[in-house]
Amino acid sequence: MYGFTTTLTGVSFDQAIVKTTAALKAEGFGVLSDIDVQQAMKEKLDQDMPPYRILGACNPPLAHQAVKAVPDIGLLLPCNVIVREEAPGRVVVGFLDPQIMVNLVGKPEVRSVADAAEQRLRRACESLGGSATQAT
């Protein structure tokens, strides 16, 4: 498992972005990057696809701890959150599980950071409501 998701119904894609950003903020995360995958696919490949964004979420104190412990951990930061429309009024919000960092880095100094980030991201996910599932 590499992440966890929730599916929101009865909301527009733009509403889901606003709700997700607010849920992240409530847990101390800011959005450092916002990649519009739908727009990029249209511009680069002339392919249409449903709305899809990747939000690069960062909790500065946790990121600082991780970088101090393992300077190259920036290769795995920020925590990615996807927001993608499955159908009108049905939006999936997915969160990368920070435990992936620990598994890839193999340094125990990162475990406490990943544990704290996971707890916060899971709370943000739960606060959105919807039906939660594990990403495989």
List the main descriptive attributes of the protein structure presented here.
globular, 31% strand, alpha+beta, 136 residues, 5 helices, TATA-Binding Protein
- What pattern of helices and strands is seen along the backbone? EHEHEHEEHHE
| CATH homologous superfamily grouping | TT1751-like domain
Q: How many beta strands in the DSSP annotation?
A: 6
CATH architecture heading: 2-Layer Sandwich
Describe the structure.
The chain has a single domain (3-135), classed as 2-Layer Sandwich (TATA-Binding Protein), CATH 3.30.310. 42% of the residues lie in helices and 31% in strands. It has helices at residues 13-26, 37-45, 60-69, 99-105, 111-127, and strands at 3-9, 30-36, 52-58, 79-87, 90-96, 131-135. The protein has a 6-stranded antiparallel sheet with strand order 2-3-4-5-1-6. A hairpin with a 2-residue loop joins strand 4 and strand 5. Helix 1 (13-26) crosses helix 5 and helix 3 runs antiparallel to helix 5. The longest helix has 17 residues, at 111-127.
